[in-house]
Amino acid sequence: MHARDESRDTTPDSRGPDQRRTVGSLERGGRQWSCSLVTYAVEGEGWRGLFAFEAEAPEPGEDEVRTAPIFVEPSEAEIHGKARSMGRPLLLALLDSALHVREQERASSPFLQRWFRRFVMEHAPGGDGADGNGASGADLDELRSLYASYRMDQVAHFIALVEPDDFHRAVDEILDGEKIDFAARDRLQLAMMVVEFIEARLPLPPFEQWILDFLAHRPEYEEYAHDLHREGLLP
User: Which tens digit of pLDDT belongs to each residue from 133-179?
Assistant: First the structure.
């Protein structure tokens, strides 16, 4: 990883100033995000480290998102060493987690909850039948979780439709010569790379569009998930 150091504003007395080291750029949902390792010293407690992600084309009022501190080490050098061992799939997972936390915080706003209920009532087919809790009994957090499950189901469905020999050859091309020592961590990272590659190329609807179709056809979605996971059937 190529890196450059940057200083940040000083935080409270027990915590030293943030130091930033640029890690690289990530792509998620058609947007580019710059990733930085942020380290700081805590008086008498060593060093802490976390990752910060900033959209390269931020929307109005959009700030960077951060993970919670994930490194606790005696020295900053040890944090840098551990951060260098983290592959791109794990950084993408951390970005997804940070974005999810931000959306949860936004969704907790009463104003946004009212907006969401109004949005569904106005746009969902048969929206007049939504119950008093809004979104036909589903809240925003539940729908985001169901949407994430839906996307993974589409990846699993696609893989199931491919002949095993063809899929093995495709995996070899996706990994493109990546060295494998079959350590548990490496297997996880390689699996995430394959899933991410497939998911990015499937014609999946954006969240807002999926909401409307899901609310209009929820029984069909639930039956599909049941058949796929419980019955092992491919619709």
Answer: 444 445 666 777 788 888 888 888 888 888 888 888 887 777 775 55
User: What range does the domain containing 148 cover?
Assistant: 108-231
Q: The tokens 């961590």 sit on which residue?
A: 185
Which of 94, 103, 96, 104 shows the shortest CA–CA distance to 28? Answer: 96
Which residues face 66 on adjacent strands?
52
Query: How many CB atoms lie under 10 A from the CB of residue 47?
Result: 21
The pTM for the full model equals 0.49
Nearest to 195 by CA among 148, 152, 232: 152
Strands (E), the chain: 5-7, 19-28, 31-42, 46-55, 65-66, 71-73
Decide: 5 and 21 in contact? Cβ < 8 Å.
Answer: yes
- Which segment of 9-18, 78-87, 165-174 scores lowest on mean pLDDT? 9-18
- Count the neighbouring beta carbons within 10 Å of the beta carbon of residue 225: 14
- Confirm if 22 and 42 have CB atoms less than 8 A apart: no
Q: How far apart are CA 51 and CA 105, in angstroms?
A: 19
146-177 burial, b if ≥16 CB within 10 A, otherwise e? bbeebbeebbeeeeeeeeeeeeeeebeeeeee
Give the number of domains in the chain.
2
- Let me know if 64 is exposed, middle or buried by CB neighbors in 10 A (0-12, 13-18, 19+): middle
- Same domain flag for 224 and 122: yes
The answer to whether residues 220 and 227 touch, using CB atoms and an 8 Å cutoff, is no
Q: Considering the domain boundaries, does residue 153 fall inside one?
A: yes
